[in-house]
Design goal:
This protein is of the alpha/beta class and 269 residues long. The chain contains 8 helices and 12 strands. The strands form 2 sheets. It has a 7-stranded mixed β-sheet with strand order 8-7-6-9-10-12-11, sandwiched between helices. A 5-stranded mixed β-sheet has the order 2-1-5-3-4, with helices on one face. Helix 5 links the parallel strand 7 and strand 8. Helix 2 crosses helix 3, helix 4 runs parallel beside helix 5 and helix 4 crosses helix 8. The two termini are 41 Å apart. This is Sulfur carrier protein ThiS adenylyltransferase ThiF. Keywords: Nucleotidyltransferase, Transferase. It holds the Pfam family ThiS-like.
């Protein structure tokens, strides 16, 4: 029968998952098996055109093998759309850095990272940076971090402050843009400029994620066509209620998931 094994179509006489693995990896019984998108240690009867990935622990896969693994976990048609997507991220702080990590792990083919700041110690409480990144430009530090997660995605960076004059130009090639600023005035500039000047662009923004209020108050809503807002819309950072990793990450997850849904053509929250 014909199967897709590590992304390549192959013909085999083996009728079970375990017999196929034993033949391909006779000296390595600790191989991880992904069977039709599901990691399993159980045996299974094989059928025509099924997708199987075998992963050697501790070994860096080739680009083809990693893509096959992503396909296996995400399902083929989902991964194809994700791989071909391009997303711009405005602001690489607590929201933007965590959103970028989530999208890189999802396999988004091209990420456009925009920020003008450097990594400093107070960022480490909620942002996806390490002590070794201190003093680096956020664009360059995050690019390096993402390449360690998925070396095969494309990443472009702009180390620049976004203004009313340059916002539309900076994101001219990004069909989906994520607003991830800390300061309300920067949020307003980006949202208003892009929605006014970029017809058809899809924008995912955030408002209200500070402190340690209930996780369940953070939601995603469709404000109007092509504009989505994540957060509780009220919890701003202030004395006694700072920006903390758990709640910031929850909101970043909402934004990342809405971006994924838009990539897949799902426009409802």
């Amino acid at each position: 029968m014909d199967l897709y094994i590590n992304g390549k179509r192959r013909t085999t006489k083996d009728s079970s998952l375990h017999s196929l693995k034993a033949k391909l990896y006779p000296k390595n019984p600790s191989i991880i098996t992904i069977y039709n998108g599901f990691q399993t240690e159980n045996d299974a009867e094989l059928s025509e055109n099924e997708h199987i990935s075998f992963i050697e622990k501790g070994v860096m896969p080739s680009e083809d093998e990693l893509e096959a693994l992503m396909v296996a976990r995400h399902t083929p048609y989902v991964h194809e759309k994700v791989k071909n997507a391009r997303v711009g991220i405005a602001g690489l702080g607590g929201l933007g850095s965590n959103i970028a990590v989530a999208l890189a792990r999802t396999g988004v083919g091209h990420l456009h990272l925009v920020d003008f700041d450097i990594v400093e110690p107070s960022n480490l409480n909620r942002q996806a940076y390490k002590i070794s990144h201190l003093g680096m430009k956020k664009t360059e530090a995050l690019q390096a971090e993402l390449k360690d997660i998925n070396p095969y995605i494309k990443i472009s960076i702009d180390d620049i402050k976004i203004t009313e004059e340059n916002a539309a130009y900076i994101f001219e090639n990004d069909p989906i843009v994520c607003e991830a600023f800390d300061r309300p005035e920067y949020k307003a500039i980006l949202v208003n400029t892009l929605l006014e000047q970029k017809t058809g662009i899809k924008l995912v923004a955030a408002s209200g994620l500070a402190g340690f209020e209930s996780s369940n108050s953070i939601k995603t809503k469709k404000v109007f066509k092509n504009f989505y807002l994540c957060g509780d819309e009220t919890s701003s950072a202030q004395p006694g209620r700072g920006l903390m990793a758990p709640r910031v990450s929850i909101c970043a997850g909402h934004q990342s998931n809405m971006i994924l849904r838009l990539i897949l053509g799902i426009e409802e929250v």
